[in-house]
Amino acid sequence: MDRDPDHIDELVQRAACGAEEALAELFSCYRGRLRQMIRLRLDRRLQGRVDPSDVLQDAYIDMAEKLPEYAGRAAIPFFVWLRMIVGERLLRVHRHHLGAAMRDATREISLHRGAFPEASSVSLAAQLLGQITSASRAALRAEMMLRLQEVLNAMDPIDREVIALRHFEELRNDEVAAALGLTKAAASKRYVRAMLRLKAAIADAPGLVDSSGAGGPG
Length: 218
Hints:
It is a single chain. By secondary structure, the protein is mostly helical. Helix content is about 65%, strand content about 0%. It has 9 helices and no strands. The chain starts with a helix and ends in a 17-residue tail after the last helix.
């Protein structure tokens, strides 16, 4: 869970002035959510080759270098800014390992496009399916995977990104709005609409998507 906003603001100011313990505490507050973001957006060709812990370690150094500038003008919520720092580092990892192959054409449709690592419909569908490992359900898993990909591919890219941010990266609605340049009302409506479409697609396989997921603004 996030800390109290006032406490986070205090840590930001202290860390920006060189307090190492404040910097470490800031990063530790969000480490779990950042690791989940990396798992969701790491190119499948790099899984097993790139350790999310290494990405986080490098991003920690980036945060330390850029924090004074952020603290001086703090135009967006801290976690939205920190997530962007980690995303930029992950994008560098992709470029280093994949080079021109980053943009290879595939049958996967990426999520929200921009200067940020993209999560594919395959990656998001796999997350939505959860941990179905029973051999007796292998056929169901394959069928649902294809169905979810079809639904995700047919969605507006921003709607898919809202699902990734809210449902898996655990951003609050106001953080999603800030990250995507939307109003809070628009971000909330897009999330509810997208989750309803997903739930309708898997209505004959209840339990694959958390029934609490399509909540209103948070």
